[in-house]
Design a protein that fits this description.
286 residues; alpha+beta; Trefoil (Acidic Fibroblast Growth Factor, subunit A); seven-stranded antiparallel beta sheet; two-stranded antiparallel ribbon; Protein FRG1; Actin-crosslinking; nucleus; FRG1
């Protein structure tokens, strides 16, 4: 609580972000799909939400594994310059209230935040530390996971797979999955050599709503642009292009060949008749 008696927000802020006010709904008792859509639109842009598709993964990212007995977050320790798996049960609210549920968890420290980026048009992403000098999460061919690379390459690429229940698996360039594994002594570590997606390979991932909205707007724009391009394609030329073999030769049926032959013959007869009439007319005036 601040000196003026107001409760100070403990929400994690990032440098350069602008604070926006949350819009209020006119009627909180509405129900149905349209109500849920309006409710999502009313979210604060900085609210942490679950992605519904791989394309939505971008910007600040919070990665949590539902380990037992305590869920853990994937952190980056700037002191040791290594990945650290942090027990979320250690984060006790300052006001002494009950800790939030797993789905209510949000990052409370910048070490818990990764920054997701991707090359346009690519299904793979890069995960860079949000603290320190910005190191990329990588995995070598032996499954050893680290965050000590300054530049991105094939070993720093991950393909996110969103499961039906909303959880996310991360596949590396070797087509192996990132997983939480128990090391000697009972400690937990990250590895990237799992062949299948099981409990250890599934993570809850949260992103900020403004980035999810931005991703969906871009996806919608691409679909609209694609539809516009398709309506502008000439049907005759496209059929000739995509339904022909060998130097653009059109392949037609025997009936079509007969019809074409007949049309050409009739065309030649018509041309000959016109030429004959023109010649007769010329002879008449000579």
């Amino acid at each position: 609580m601040s000196s003026d008696g107001k409760v100070r927000s403990t929400k994690l802020k990032f440098k350069g972000e602008k604070t926006k006010k949350k819009r209020k709904r006119d009627n909180d008792d509405e129900a149905g799909p349209s109500s849920r859509r309006h409710k999502e639109e009313d979210l604060d842009p900085e609210t942490w939400v679950l992605p519904e598709g791989p394309h939505e993964l971008r910007g600040p990212t919070f990665i949590v594994h539902p380990s037992d007995p305590s869920p853990i977050s994937v952190n980056y320790n700037t002191t040791t310059n290594r990945i650290a798996l942090h027990s979320l049960d250690k984060d006790v609210p300052e006001d002494g209230s009950a800790p939030p549920t797993l789905m209510e968890r949000t990052p409370t420290d910048v070490s818990q935040v990764w920054v997701t980026t991707r090359i346009a048009g690519s299904p793979t992403i890069n995960l860079r530390t949000g603290s320190g000098e910005g190191k990329f999460l990588s995995c070598d061919k032996h499954g050893l996971v680290s965050a000590d690379r300054d530049a991105r390459g094939p070993q720093e690429e991950w393909t996110p797979v969103v499961m039906p229940d909303g959880m996310v698996a991360f596949m590396n360039v070797y087509e192996k999955y990132l997983a939480v594994d128990e090391a000697a002594g009972g400690s937990l570590q990250l590895r990237g050599d799992s062949d299948e997606v099981g409990f250890g390979e599934r993570f809850w991932v949260k992103i900020q709503y403004k980035y999810k909205k931005e991703a969906n707007q871009e996806e919608k724009k691409k679909k609209m642009e694609g539809a516009t391009v398709q309506t502008k394609i000439d049907e005759t030329s496209s059929n000739h292009m995509f339904q022909a073999w060998g130097a653009g030769r059109s392949v037609v049926s025997s009936d079509d060949k007969k019809a074409l032959k007949k049309a050409r013959k009739e065309g030649r007869l018509a041309e000959a008749l016109l030429d004959r009439r023109a010649k007769l007319k010329s002879d008449r005036f000579c």
